[in-house]
Specification:
By secondary structure, the chain is mainly alpha-helical. It has 15 helices and no strands.
Length: 372
Amino acid sequence: MSDIEPNDLSDTQESKPTEPETDAPVEPTGELPVEPQAETQESAVSDTQPRKLKSMARGAFLISALVLIAAVLLGAGGGYSYGTMQRLNAQKATNVQSLSEQMALAQQDYDAKRYENVRKRLEFVLKQDPGYAGAGDLLAKVMVQMAITPTLTLTPTPTMTPTPDLRSQQTIYTQLKQQMQNKDWTGVLSSLDSLRKTDPTYKTAEVDDMYYSALLNRGMDQILGRGAYAKTTNLEGGIYDLTLAERFGPLDGVSAGMRTWARTYIVAASFWQLDWAQAVNYFGQVYEYAPNLRDASNYTAAQRYHDALLQYGDQQAAASRLKDRCLALNSWKTAAQISPLDNTYAYKFAQLDLLCNPPTPTSEPPTATPGA
């Protein structure tokens, strides 16, 4: 070893052939290959950047939804169009069947020479389908047959009108005359109804005059208590008869006035024992023009006015203030003008009059002193 010189060593080393390192084969070592450090750095850098995957997924979802909606709409539109087409086809088939039936019936009517029916059926067919096979030709034949076939016109058999038998009408009319003389107004009205029912045209003007007279007189009798109503009046019935009489002619002044007072009497009676002030008001109006008018109780308007004044005076005399109580004197005084007050009301009047109109004290003249 010591005999070798350094130069010998260098020569030895130089004598060994050297191959490039890149060409040396790499033997497997069983270890996982290590990725280059540069890629690791790039991965680390990319993790810190915003990711576009979520936005891309969301856009893809929206596109899919729009495609699905478009498909649904196209399917619905196609279904609607198909349904409409089916309905139109069914309707067309029904119309064709109907026209076919009408054509067959038209042929049957033509064979039976019912040309008017044939014409109507064929006009219907041609209106629905102007080019319907055979309809135009058959209609032409029908029009020819109708032109040469005369239409029979039925002449009604004249009805023989019998001569009216007027004996029953004349008998009723004669009876009416007698009832009018007897002032049997209810009987007159009954006979008039029978006559009018038997022959409405029999002496129309005279019958109308009889209706007017009978209704007017019976109405006045019921209100005034005359004839058949002497014992008991019927104000409502009289008002009704006078109203019916107006259908045949205007009322005279007397009957129209009595109907007005009869209505006023009924209104006044509705306030009896409920509102004495109103009862006095309305009965006072009737008393002024028809004091003897009475209702079914035979209580005249004068009597009712008198009693209503007494009751209204009692109501006034019960007032709290003396000024209001004194008004009762006027009510009782008015009642006394219709009929004298009885002892009870005479005493009430005197006592209240002392309070309302006390006597005025008189001063006595001074007496002379003797020997003065």
